[in-house]
Description:
single chain, mainly alpha, 84% helix
Amino acid sequence: MLCLPEKYIYSWIFGIQIRSSMSKEIREHMREYKKECSDILYKHFKGSLTHRKELLDKINSNINKIRKSKKELGSNELYNNILILEHENKKNKRLLKLIDENITKQDETLF
Length: 111
């Protein structure tokens, strides 16, 4: 016996062709079902695309604001010192992680 998983049944039904040999009631029900499926799919994909575009617009707007702020702050010595310290901290955190990994490997060899 061959079975179709439930999650595929709804799209399978959507693919059924409406034929004149079907009763009028079934044909009407199938048309309503297909229209509802189309509406749901449209809202889902259109909504996803619209939401994605809104997020991309916000990201681009923020990038432009950051660039503008960095340009304005570029000559500020305090700001430049902060950037240097942040860079140094990132580098030191990477080194610390390497040291911790090395210690862990050494500890494992003891047992």
